[in-house]
Write a structure and sequence with these properties.
Layout (H helix, E strand, L loop, with lengths): L1 H22 L15 E6 L1 H4 L3 H11 L5 E6 L5 H6 L5 H9 L3 E4 L5 H4 L1 H17 L3 E5 L5 E4 L2 E4 L1 H18 L2 E3 L1 H11 L15 H16 L14 H17 L2 H14 L3 H7 L6 H8 L4 E5 L2 E8 L3 E8 L2 E8 L6 E5 L4
Parallel strand pairs: 1-2, 1-3, 3-4, 4-7
Antiparallel strand pairs: 5-6, 8-9, 9-10, 10-11, 11-12
Organism: Candidatus Akkermansia intestinigallinarum
InterPro entries: cNMP-bd_dom, SGNH_hydro_sf
Protein name: Cyclic nucleotide-binding domain-containing protein
């Protein structure tokens, strides 16, 4: 009898415990990390500090109730290689080592990913190794290309953007790290709003709209939230700010470094090779003939009465045609990134 009573009491206690467990509110999942837990260190040059991009990111994070501790180490015209190697620029490495940052934003010198991609690839890997020792997650700042002025309109240099995007995406995939596709958001903006430039008059740095675009992209990458509906900053008018937010949100939502590499590889395969380009250079060659065969020039520059048309070739090759008074007189062909240059005197053909 006593044993039955004990068993009955045990069953009652189990039932009460189960009921209590079901009735109690479920423990909420851990909320997004607090501002004391989340922090960001920006390392870069004037593309980072002009218009105070870190400060603008900070304001957007606070407005979106995603406040984080923001810090930066910047120096004009400086590459990731110098920030890593130069003893006088060790401030970035020191801050990373001591700051317990959640994120490390890496921005290389603007031309290096396009013109010396192996340098970017090498030093992103080295910075990634440093960051991971501190349990910090690297984020690549995929920058925008320079621009040219054509018919009083600012145009993004597509060739430079392709090369810049390719290098940063290669780094992101190889190192398995995050990427903020700012340059691709700029590209999307210029396609839709060609009369509202994001570049300063120097055709390199960002104006207020450009910095606001970059800040919106970083907001989306760092928080996983859309920047649509955030306040306007930097003197950008409300309508333009809304348009920028939408393009930033759409770019981040659909961007994949793997897909970007695949797309750019396919585009490269469609380009003519150096041998094909060389066969087009005859004594009677014209710019129109090259346009018809090679497509739109990546760059057109004028200096001292000479106009230079630069055409893209496969594997980062290039054909440059030099004209005076509309007549071609010389050409150079480079078969690839690390190949020599073939100089052709057209008048002697």
């Amino acid at each position: 009898m006593f044993k039955r009573l004990i068993a009955l009491i045990a069953l009652i206690l189990l039932a009460l415990a189960a009921e209590s467990s079901l009735a109690a509110p479920k423990k909420k999942a851990k909320a997004r990390s607090t501002d004391a837990e989340q922090s960001v260190l920006f390392i870069g040059n004037s593309y980072t500090y002009v218009n105070d991009l870190p400060g603008m990111v900070n304001q957007l994070l606070k407005a979106g109730k995603n406040a984080m501790r923001i810090d930066s180490f910047t120096r004009g015209a400086t590459a990731l290689s110098a920030f890593y190697e130069d003893a006088s620029l060790r401030g970035g490495r020191d801050k990373l080592a001591k700051g317990r940052f959640t994120w490390l934003v890496l921005q290389d010198q603007s031309q290096t990913p396009a013109m010396r991609p192996q340098a970017t690839i090498r030093y992103v890997a080295l910075w990634t190794e440093l960051a991971r020792r501190q349990n910090t997650k690297p984020v690549l700042f995929l920058t925008w290309a320079h621009a040219v002025l054509r018919d009083n309109r600012v145009e993004l240099i597509e060739d430079m953007q392709d090369k810049t995007s390719y290098t940063y995406c290669r780094c992101a995939v190889d190192n398995k790290i995050d990427i903020a596709p700012v340059g691709e958001a700029w590209r999307a903006w210029y396609k839709k709003y060609p009369t509202k430039p994001l570049h300063c008059p120097d055709l390199s740095h960002a104006n207020n709209r450009g910095t606001y675009m970059a800040a919106c992209v970083f907001y989306a990458v760092l928080t996983g939230d859309s920047p649509v509906g955030l306040p306007t900053l930097g003197g950008v008018d409300r309508k333009t700010a809304g348009d920028i937010q939408k393009i930033a949100a759409a770019t981040v939502a659909k961007f994949s470094p793997e897909a970007c590499l695949k797309k750019l590889d396919a585009a490269n395969d469609e380009l003519p090779d150096a041998a094909t380009a060389r066969a087009l250079i005859t004594r009677d060659v014209t710019v129109k003939q090259l346009r018809d065969k090679l497509g739109k020039p990546a760059y057109v520059t004028e200096q001292d009465g000479t106009t230079v048309y630069q055409f893209r070739l496969r594997n980062s090759g290039e054909l440059a045609l030099y004209c005076r008074g509309g007549k071609p007189y010389s050409a150079t062909i480079r078969a690839g990134e690390n190949s020599g240059v073939d100089i052709i005197n057209i008048d002697e053909l």
